[in-house]
Fold this sequence. Notes:
Blueprint: E1 7-11, H1 14-25, E2 28-29, H2 33-42, E3 50-53, E4 56-59, E5 62-66, E6 72-73, E7 78-79, E8 83-88, E9 101-103, H3 110-120, E10 123-130, E11 133-139, E12 145-148
Parallel strand pairs: 1-8, 9-12
Antiparallel strand pairs: 2-5, 3-4, 5-8, 6-7, 10-11, 11-12
Amino acid sequence: MPLHWKLVIDCTDPHRQAAFWGAALDYTVEDHTALIARLLDTGAITPDALTEADGRPAWRTLAAVRHPDDPYDPASDTGLGRRILFQAVPEPKEGKNRLHLDVHPGPGERAATVTRLEALGATVLHEVAEPGGAWTVMHDPEGNEFCVH
């Protein structure tokens, strides 16, 4: 049986990263308000574990996005399919990623997608043109490399 998995990305601002990648991929930013309220009510967590994101309570060190068509737990809004979790770490990114996302917008849509992602906070590093294809290498708002094909 295949294993369920999620991609976890270390970052300094998980909510900014979730907002960027949610908009970039057209994914849903998870809203854990109900789960947080239940955990606060039972005393399982304290308010120091929380912050506010988009006017609602959120985990201080975690934020996630999920594919809008995949299953999710309605009690917690946690994705059960394609999901990216952003977790805060104290150190900034250094060096090249050992793992990165490739975004595939479809034939003829790369330039428009690159422009849209720049408007969301990404930056272009360089263009690649090889016999096997062409793509744009970009940085997300925290400097993580990704490619648009």
